Amino acid sequence: AALEKGKSGTCYLLAHENIPYSRFMRMIAEEAGLRRTFVPVPTGALTGAGKLVSIMESLFNTGISLTYPNAVLLTAQNYYQAQRARQELHLPQTPVREAIRQAVKWFREN
User: Fold this and answer.
1) Dmax over Cα atoms in the chain, in whole Å?
2) What DSSP letter does each residue of 28-56 carry, written as one string?
3) Which band of pLDDT confidence, cut at 50, 70 and 90, is reported for residue 28?
4) Do 10 and 84 contact (CB within 8 A), yes or no?
5) What was the pLDDT predicted at 101?
6) Is the backbone of residue 83 left (phi > 0), alpha (psi -120 to 50) or beta?
7) Helix axes 68-75, 43-60, angle to 10 degrees
8) % of the chain exceeding 70 in pLDDT
9) Quick one: pLDDT band at residue 29, thresholds 50, 70, 90?
10) How would you class 49 by CB atoms within 10 Å of its CB: exposed for 0-12, middle for 13-18, buried for 19 or more?
11) Residue 30 pLDDT > 70, yes or no?
12) 29 and 19 Cβ atoms separated by less than 8 Å
C-alpha cells in the first residue's frame, strides 16, 4: 500500500496497536501455547548488560544479539500512531493478537 499510495519522503507506521514489549512477548507465548515465566529486568541492568556484551562482541566476535543499542531500544518507551497510514494508505487494521495467531499458524505450517 505504501509503495502504491504513499507520498515520496513520507514515513508511515504500518502497525495497529502500541503495546509494551512485555505484553507482546506474553501474547506470542499464549498464542503459541507456550508456558513461559517472564522476569522483569530493570532498565539499568539491561542497558548495563548491553554495554558489557557490546564490548565482548567487539573483542571476541561472539555473535551475541543483546548489544547496547538493542538494550536501549528495548527499554525505550516509544509509542507512535498509525493514523497517517490508515488515512492516506487506507491500511487495514488487524489487532496484534490476531496477527500473532496468523503468524504462529504460518510458522507451524511452513
Assistant:
1) 48
2) HHHHHT---------HHHHHHHHHHHHHH
3) very high
4) yes
5) 96
6) alpha
7) 160
8) 99
9) very high
10) middle
11) yes
12) no
Break the chain down into helix, strand, coil percent, rounded to 5: 55, 0, 45
CA angle 94, 19, 21 (to 5 degrees): 120
pLDDT score of 1 more than 70: no
Q: Which residue has the cell 561472539?
A: 62
Residue whose C-alpha cell reads 497510514 in the numeric block: 85
Does 90 or 2 have the greater pLDDT score? Answer: 90
Residue 32 C-alpha cell reads as 503459541
What is the arithmetic mean of pLDDT over 73-99?
86
- Angstrom distance (rounded) from CA 94 to CA 72: 28
d(CA 91, CA 12): 10
C-alpha cell of residue 14: 504500518
